[in-house]
UniProtKB/TrEMBL annotation:
HAMAP family noted in UniProt: P5C_reductase (MF_01925)
Molecular function as annotated in GO: pyrroline-5-carboxylate reductase activity
Subcellular location: Cytoplasm
Full protein name: Pyrroline-5-carboxylate reductase
Keywords, sorted A to Z: Amino-acid biosynthesis, Cytoplasm, NADP, Oxidoreductase, Proline biosynthesis
Source organism, top-level taxon: Bacteria
Enzyme Commission identifier(s): 1.5.1.2
Any one GO BP annotation for this protein: L-proline biosynthetic process
Protein role: Catalyzes the reduction of 1-pyrroline-5-carboxylate (PCA) to L-proline.
Family matches, as Gene3D superfamilies: NAD(P)-binding Rossmann-like Domain (3.40.50.720), ProC C-terminal domain-like (1.10.3730.10)
Taxonomic placement: Bacteria, Pseudomonadati, Pseudomonadota, Alphaproteobacteria, Rhodobacterales
Associated pathway: Amino-acid biosynthesis; L-proline biosynthesis; L-proline from L-glutamate 5-semialdehyde: step 1/1
Native source organism of the sequence: Roseisalinus antarcticus
Domain Pyrroline-5-carboxylate reductase catalytic N-terminal: 7-95
Amino acid sequence: MTRNSSIAILGGNGALGSAIATALLARGVVEAGALWISSRSGTAGPLTGTGVRTTSQAQEAACACGTVILAVPPAQAGALGIAAADALVISVMAGVPRSRLAALAGAGRVVRAMSSPAAATHRAFSPWFAPDLGAADKARTDRILSACGLADEVTEEAHIDLFTGITGPIPGFVAYLAQCFADHATARGVAPDVANRAARQLFLASGEALAASDLPPAAHVQAMIDYAGTTAAGLRAMQASPLAAAIAEGVEAAVARAQQMGRG
């Protein structure tokens, strides 16, 4: 075990930090003894008993590890108070710009990324931005974030802000759409428990079908329209409605809120 192979997760007992830690351990990216969890309580939370190292001192964890993942709530970013000049710093804090991250962590090798608690089951999408990193740092970043699910390097920092408005809120957006369908069925006389079971199962099947296909969502939509059945009738009505604009408005509202939280 060397310092370069060790990873510290600041805020590692929170929902996002512990999900990333779970993914890294499960995929063998880091051994338990080389994974540091830093939290205000000094406990490992969901990772208690796994053999990870814990501390309440963020600087202790930062000094011990070659890679430091910042997973504290963005509102607490200003209180990080660490110096990690010789570490690779990967932030998954919503809305905190890369320039501020470098100052907060006292670091020169900084990655701005986004992920979600779905990392625990390797189902997160984690975009990242770090155009000036060397090849070795980029490979390490990709390996860490790919353990959480799918990861992609993006070419503009603004894309991270956009994905912040998509990555976190999409489960809520999907839940709202499911609610709308369930509410409609209930209003037509279907028992609420049946409507809710149907919505959950149908959204599960639809998500799995999209994930298993290499085709973009638009291709699936067009194929259903071309079939000219009941789905096509519903889709044409939705395309003629303000639904797409309302979804875009929701995404932009989430982006604006993330930027507000991250800029302190």
